[in-house]
Amino acid sequence: xxxxxxxxxxxxxxxxxxxxxxxxxxxxxxxxxxxxxxxxxxxxxxxxxxxxxxxxxxxxxxxxxxxxxxxxxxxxxxxxxxxxxxxxxxxxxxxxxxxxxxxxxxxxxxxxxxxxxxxxxxxxxxxxxxxxxxxxxxxxxxxxxxxxxxxxxxxxxxxxxxxxxxxxxxxxxxxxxxxxxxxxxxxxxxxxxxxxxxxxxxxxxxxxxxxxxxxxxxxxxxxxxxxxxxxxxxxxxxxxxxxxxxxxxxxxxxxxxxxxxxxxxxxxxxxxxxxxxxxxxxxxxxxxxxxxxxxxxxxxxxxxxxxxxxxxxxxxxxxxxxxxxxxxxxxxxxxxxxxxxxxxxxxxxxxxxxxxxxxxxxxxxxxxxxxxxxxxxxxxxxxxxxxxxxxxxxxxxxxxxxxxxxxxxxxxxxxxxxxxxxxxxxxxxxx
Length: 431
What we know:
By secondary structure, the chain is of the alpha+beta class. It contains 5 helices and 24 strands.
């Protein structure tokens, strides 16, 4: 290239100074061209490096995505479960049952004598003592029957006097052999009949007098009149049964409650147990009572045992007929309890899913005892060390591989589980 420059300069050769200036200018231009070429090569090299880096990052990103997808698929393929272990029931249970308050003595007061109501003296809400007059009944028919019975009694007494004197005369005649023995026996028989007739007449008079005494309706015991079903002038039919009761009398200072205890708890209820009675309208008050007696048998129709509870009501805070809740404290059964949400109810019966040490599921059939709400009592099929799956899915089968989820800190959180969690405490109340 220098030779070419020289050839180009020679035709125009001038002074030495001019020649040197021209050469310097050519060298500067050449240097600039070389610098431009170097920068161009560097830019091209840099571009190739950047392209290579971008391609590498794309490959790395794709590899990372593939690994993340593979890891996520593997994790999702693992079936995580939360488990709970059984425990022994060491606390008592409170059995709550509905009941209706009744007076310790409660009776409808009916009339024994037929007639018309003349007057009533006590209305609803009245407190009465034993023997206190409640009402009076007019009984004209009974009055007439009594008068007739008294007259019949007088006739019987008169006949008896005649028969007695006749027997005395005929016995005297018999001693003189003036009459036969047969005639004397007939007179003695007539005397006996007259005595019997007089006794029957006396009994009839006494019956009607007692019946007439029922015109006065009195209280058979001390209590409160809770119903009055008649008014002055009403026709009163004698007797009970379908006859209308005049009053309903209730002894309210002592109350009783009948509750029906399910067969499952019947063996745990004993006479003398203290119970608590509550009424929703009196939410702040609790009343104490005792189990007076039990039916000591199970009703075959309802599978329950009737229990009578006696309680005092001296202050009258409770009203007969009110709906109440009776809380029966029951002793601990020392049975094994499991969480209710571990049960699997299928066509072949009730079972639980037990996770072994290798993470394998085994479906174990169980026999259920008492239902305590959040927990149930099992009578067999599981051990205290078994790990039971909580909320098992319908697809869970015998032999499935599962993993116990780590504790998430929130029971029942979506996507989380509780590892080796204990079942909830037994319910304190059961209905």
